[in-house]
């Protein structure tokens, strides 16, 4: 659907892909809610987004593509389920090699270390969230959207052999539930 | 360098720990490592700092969480630009040390042969020089066209943006999290110091850094702090004497072994030639073997 990857936004003839580009577009259109926040808070939001986009995404890619059990039982079927017979067996392996190359040194880590890195990163965000309604300030920001997107996916995807839910802090789960109620009116219960 | 920033957080650091930051060149090209007393190694600045952070507080603090977030941002935006700069510096260094004949003969080859050791040093330097010459000529042939201008601009733009973010975050404060230096200060200083000291090439990024007054002041503050906390080597009498002997007679052990081997072999030769030691070959055994072979042939 999108050549540069997900997420993407289509408004009329305008097509924007990648999270940062969408946020930049919304900032230009003055749709961002925390415009009144101080410079420091804005910097923190950018840094936290980077943590999620780089570190957590790396862990997720590792879990879905490089763990054999998950790859054969879940990822391969989801990724190539709609393709023809021969392609069904070729394309997932091609993509897997591509991801291994992209991850570089990270691909050589063992599962235990990757899970500990994932837990540490999520704990960092949970530490900043604490018991507040949103991660930063009283209004939802892009970091809330990003946390919701990642944590919701981790909560609702059943990975064979790995219990990811135990590595997600409780307050992040509650934030996820709140965001689901607020934006989707609980259509997809966590 | 980043660890020195942590010293101010009153962590007791075991002085027996070994750090890899022995030479500036090593620090420039490789990741730092820390060897623990049990022999295991921690590689990477962030992992080393997390090791000390865990010693101080058992749980993750909000300062550490922010530090992680900014480090991730730094890796995403500033590090690609620094890698480019390191590549240029490496290129210049190789050119200066290996291709300039004066430097090569007077310093590089001598240092390398001393480090490599006796039999290997006869071939090692020549081989390495040839290899470097080959790689450099290959890169020169490739030319500047290969490097996409758009990529260069993008990387620089992102790095500049990151410096602006740091400037806004610092916002006239002494350190990032108030009055005391933290891990984030150490990380930022560790990377910016490299940028400041890279004088071999003219860098637009350095000019941009000079236009950020808060960051420059922060760097100077950290520099004085680091110089004040510099690790001093314990200079005992024993180590001093050893160093003096080493300086006076380099490769002492090797020379002793070679002399011993030479002495023993000449003594043996002398004793055999004068007939003090006689080697008797049993003629019966040889004749027995010959008859057996003849029988087999028949």
TrEMBL record, chain A:
Question: Could you list the residue ranges that cross the membrane?
Answer: none
Instruction: Quote the InterPro entries the UniProt record gives.
Output: Glutathione-S-Trfase_C_sf, Metaxin_GST, Mito_Protein_Transport_Metaxin, Sam37/metaxin_N
Coarsely, its chief localization is mitochondrion
Where does it live in the cell? Mitochondrion outer membrane
SUPFAM superfamilies from the xrefs? GST C-terminal domain-like (SSF47616)
* The UniProt record lists the keyword Transmembrane helix: no
Q: Read off the Pfam families from this record.
A: GST_C_6 (PF17171), Tom37 (PF10568)
Its keywords, alphabetically, are: Membrane, Mitochondrion, Mitochondrion outer membrane, Protein transport, Transport
Q: What GO cellular component entries does it have?
A: SAM complex
Every copy of the Mitochondrial outer membrane transport complex Sam37/metaxin N-terminal domain together lies at 6-96
Family indicated by similarity: Belongs to the metaxin family.
Q: What is this protein called?
A: DgyrCDS9754
TrEMBL record, chain B:
Subcellular location per UniProt equals: Mitochondrion outer membrane
Q: What is this protein called?
A: DgyrCDS5647
Q: How is this protein annotated for GO cellular component?
A: SAM complex
Sorted alphabetically, which keywords does the UniProt record give? Membrane, Mitochondrion, Mitochondrion outer membrane, Protein transport, Transmembrane, Transmembrane helix, Transport
**One GO BP annotation of this record:** protein transport
Taxonomy, top ranks, is: Eukaryota, Metazoa, Spiralia, Lophotrochozoa, Annelida
Give yes or no: UniProt keyword Transmembrane.
yes
| Family, similarity comment | Belongs to the metaxin family.
UniProt keyword Ribosomal protein present: no
Q: Which residues cross the membrane?
A: 256-279
Q: Domain GST C-terminal: where? A: 110-249
Q: What is its main location?
A: mitochondrion
A UniProt-annotated Pfam family: GST_C_6
């Amino acid at each position: 659907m999108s050549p540069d990857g997900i997420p993407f936004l289509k408004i009329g003839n305008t097509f924007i892909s990648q999270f940062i580009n969408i946020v930049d577009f919304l900032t230009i259109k003055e749709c961002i809610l925390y415009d009144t926040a101080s410079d420091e808070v804005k910097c923190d939001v950018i840094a936290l987004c980077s943590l999620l986009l780089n570190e957590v995404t790396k862990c997720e890619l590792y879990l879905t593509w490089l763990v054999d059990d998950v790859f054969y039982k879940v990822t391969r079927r989801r990724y190539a389920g709609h393709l023809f017979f021969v392609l069904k067996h070729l394309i997932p392996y091609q993509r897997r090699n591509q991801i291994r190359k992209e991850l570089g040194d990270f691909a050589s880590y063992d599962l235990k270390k990757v899970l500990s890195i994932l837990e540490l990163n999520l704990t960092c965000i949970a530490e900043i969230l604490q018991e507040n309604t949103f991660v930063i300030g009283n209004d939802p920001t892009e970091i809330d959207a990003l946390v919701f997107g990642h944590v919701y996916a981790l909560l609702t995807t059943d990975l064979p052999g790995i219990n990811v839910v135990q590595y997600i802090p409780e307050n992040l789960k509650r934030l996820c539930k709140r965001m689901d109620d607020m934006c989707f009116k609980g259509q997809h219960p966590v | 360098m980043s660890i020195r920033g942590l010293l101010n957080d009153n962590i007791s650091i075991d002085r027996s720990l070994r750090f890899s930051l022995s030479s500036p060149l090593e620090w420039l090209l490789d990741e730092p490592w820390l060897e623990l007393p049990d022999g295991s190694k921690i590689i990477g600045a962030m992992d080393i700092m997390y090791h000390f952070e865990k010693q101080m507080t058992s749980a993750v603090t909000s300062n550490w969480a922010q530090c992680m977030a900014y480090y991730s941002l730094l890796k995403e935006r500033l590090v690609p630009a620094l890698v480019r700069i390191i590549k240029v510096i490496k290129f210049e260094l190789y050119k200066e040390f290996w291709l300039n004949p004066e430097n090569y003969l007077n310093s590089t080859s001598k240092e390398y042969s001393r480090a490599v050791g006796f039999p290997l040093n006869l071939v090692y330097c020549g081989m390495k020089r040839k290899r470097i010459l080959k790689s450099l000529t290959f890169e020169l042939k490739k030319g500047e066209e290969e490097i996409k201008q758009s990529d260069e601009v993008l990387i620089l733009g992102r790095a500049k943006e990151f410096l602006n973010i740091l400037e806004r975050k610092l916002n006239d404060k002494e350190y990032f999290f108030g009055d005391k230096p933290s891990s984030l200060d150490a990380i930022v200083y560790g990377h910016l110091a490299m940028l400041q000291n890279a004088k071999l090439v003219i860098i637009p990024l350095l000019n941009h850094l000079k236009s950020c007054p808060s960051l420059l002041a922060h760097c100077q503050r950290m520099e004085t702090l680091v110089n004040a906390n510099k690790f001093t080597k314990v200079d005992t009498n024993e180590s001093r004497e050893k160093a003096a002997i080493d300086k006076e007679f380099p490769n002492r052990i090797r020379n002793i072994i070679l002399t011993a081997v030479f002495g023993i072999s000449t003594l043996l030769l002398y004793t055999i030639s004068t007939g003090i030691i006689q080697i008797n070959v049993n003629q019966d055994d040889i004749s027995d073997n010959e008859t057996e072979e003849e029988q087999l042939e028949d």
